[in-house]
Amino acid sequence: MCETGTAVHSGNDDNAYLAEFRDRLGLPGIIDVHTHFMPEPVMQKVWAYFDSAGPLTARAWPIAYRDDEQVRLKTLRGFGVRAFSSLVYPHKPEMGAWLNEWTAEFAERTPDCLHTATFYPEPAAESYVAEAIRRGAQVFKVHVQVGGFDPGDPLLNPVWGLIQDARIPVVIHCGSGPVAGEFTGPGPIAALLRRFPRLPLIVAHMGAPEYREFFDLAEKYPDIRFDTTMTFTDFFEQVDPFPADELGRLRSFGDRILFGSDFPNIPYTYGHAVDALERLELGDEWLRKVCYQNAADLFGVA
């Protein structure tokens, strides 16, 4: 793999490569379950944090797609992405309801975006999560590392109950990469699943760097899925390489893995995220499921 983290495909030929990839596999498009669209002031603060190489990133992290919202939408669609998410996450109380209002409005004006919602452990969470479900939320986002909270916080018990009953997937950053937090890792998730065993969790970044332990949980809980976000790219492989002896289980979980990119907050081109999956050599059928069909089935994308 490239030691510099440089993508295999330059920005100029990403569209051509991805079009060829879709045509070769017979895909109507790509579904990306891990993209970020946020209120502009929040996005600017996120970019400023990455620019500062803050303690949660631990290294330089240049943003490859630092453009205004409409340009980013055009870029993503140009890559052949047929459906995507607007993952937001609060880092303190009294943000969740406001973020959910924004994502609901964004979904209304962006039909190819999955209606996304979020929450934080606070007394109001049950109410605004119930409202998000009532308005048609299709996916939730939780960021244990940034939020700095235990997913098993008692304030979240009614929230997890609502989500489990509604069968709405939750993209959850719970692995300890890139930097471990007090509540990251498989332990808190295992405790949560003992109380809510039917939670449809999508473990972000394949659970990096605790790939094995999260795979172990997936063998016990059939509603656990994974997204590929940043995993297998040169940028991640330099620090948290995926264990080669887990490729067998990676193949066997082919029905439970969804493509994710972290667009626009990636330090390489979009095509590299897809190429990184191709070079695993797990077969065209595995790629078809991961890049489109699994998410299409889960979210009802026609």
Describe the structure.
- The protein has 302 residues and is an alpha/beta fold.
- It has one domain (27-297): Metal-dependent hydrolases (TIM Barrel), CATH 3.20.20.140.
- Helix content is 42%, strand content 9%.
- It has 13 helices and eight strands.
- It has helices spanning 14-25, 40-51, 69-78, 96-109, 125-134, 144-147, 157-166, 186-195, 211-220, 234-237, 247-252, 270-278, 284-299, and strands at residues 30-32, 81-84, 116-118, 139-143, 170-173, 201-203, 225-227, 257-258.
- A six-stranded parallel beta sheet has the order 3-4-5-6-7-8. The chain has a two-stranded parallel ribbon with strand order 1-2.
- Strand 6, helix 9 and strand 7 (225-227) form a beta-alpha-beta unit.
- Helix 4 runs parallel beside helix 5 (125-134) and helix 5 (125-134) packs parallel to helix 7.
- It is globular, with a radius of gyration of 18 Å.
- The model is unreliable at 1-11 (pLDDT under 50).
- Residues 31-300 form the Amidohydrolase-related domain.
Q: Give the strand order of the largest sheet, numbering strands 1, 2, ... along the chain.
A: 3-4-5-6-7-8
State the shape: globular
Terminal Cα separation, in Å? 36 Å
- Specify the number of helices: 13
The low-confidence runs, each spanning 5 or more residues with pLDDT under 50, are 1-11
Q: What average pLDDT do the residues reach?
A: 95
CATH architecture descriptor name: Alpha-Beta Barrel
Number of strands: 8
The CATH superfamily bears the name Metal-dependent hydrolases
GO molecular function: carboxy-lyase activity; hydrolase activity
Domain Amidohydrolase-related: 31-300
Keywords: Hydrolase, Lyase
Organism: Nocardia colli
